[in-house]
Amino acid sequence: METPFIVALDFPTGEDVKAFLQSFPRESLFVKVGMELYYQEGPAIIHYLKEQGHRIFLDLKLHDIPNTVKRAMQGLARLGVDLVNVHAAGGTVMMEAALEGLEAGTPNGARRPYCIAVTQLTSTSEQMLRNELWIDRSMEETVLHYASLAKKSGLDGVVCSAKEVPLIRKHCGEAFLTVTPGIRFADDEKNDQVRVVTPYEAKKFGASFIVVGRSITRAENPIAAYERLQQEWKGEEKE
Ligand SMILES: O=c1ccn([C@@H]2O[C@H](COP(=O)(O)O)[C@@H](O)[C@H]2O)c(=O)[nH]1
């Protein structure tokens, strides 16, 4: 899945996506389709993006009883996306069922989509963890525990903040994928994100992939923002 940059296509319609992608006429991107877009456009948007040569992270964060997740994953595997996910909070039996569904649904000769688990959303703070979710552990301990459950279930990696990557790498190994949203340039608004890092910091923490939405999609010049991302990843942080 070579490029480390995943562009979150958080748009309400396929037409908006097409208009946005016109800025990148010659680029084969790694894009993320989330709930906003998929719930409106369904499989058609996946077929369109595949035809255009883009790689796809279908970010639907499945979290349900094991049988439901297994059957849903069986259908998603047929779409031919590269990466899908679940919530680790669904537990190991649910995560194992997700993999079984993906394996059953992957067409002969194709590679099954990578499957990763959300540890804790990057919009969650340690205070929310304790006061709302009643998880009486630090953010790092909680994220590491959920990552360990994902690894034990056979998943390929996790969604986490880049801040937690060094700890996860140490315990789950270098091959375990860390896909990290909550990315902002130093001069950006955080919006609803809490555990935020810059692209430069994410690289230093060792993230496998960074997921970038509004910093590119809502930029005045998305191409310039994408190029800035590439520069920062190479180690050149803008002052
Ligand atoms: O913990 C998570 C899991 C998923 N996301 C998704 O990533 C993008 C981030 O968008 P920005 O505009 O760069 O904030 C968005 O699609 C989320 O659904 C996440 O942010 N955190």
UniProtKB/TrEMBL annotation:
The active site is at D59 (for ompdecase activity), K61 (proton donor), K61 (for ompdecase activity), D64 (for ompdecase activity). One of its GO terms (biological process) is 'de novo' UMP biosynthetic process. Its EC number is 4.1.1.23. It comes from the Bacteria. Residues 4-229 form the Orotidine 5'-phosphate decarboxylase domain. The keyword Glycoprotein does not apply. Substrate binds at residues 10, 32, 59-68, 122, 184, 193, 213-214. One of its GO terms (molecular function) is orotidine-5'-phosphate decarboxylase activity. Keywords: Decarboxylase, Lyase, Pyrimidine biosynthesis. Pathway: Pyrimidine metabolism; UMP biosynthesis via de novo pathway; UMP from orotate: step 2/2. GO terms for cellular component: cytosol. Signal peptide: none annotated. Coiled coil: none annotated. It catalyses: orotidine 5'-phosphate + H(+) = UMP + CO2. The keyword Lyase applies. Belongs to the OMP decarboxylase family. Type 1 subfamily. HAMAP family: OMPdecase_type1_B. Catalyzes the decarboxylation of orotidine 5'-monophosphate (OMP) to uridine 5'-monophosphate (UMP). Homodimer. This is Orotidine 5'-phosphate decarboxylase. It comes from Saccharococcus thermophilus.
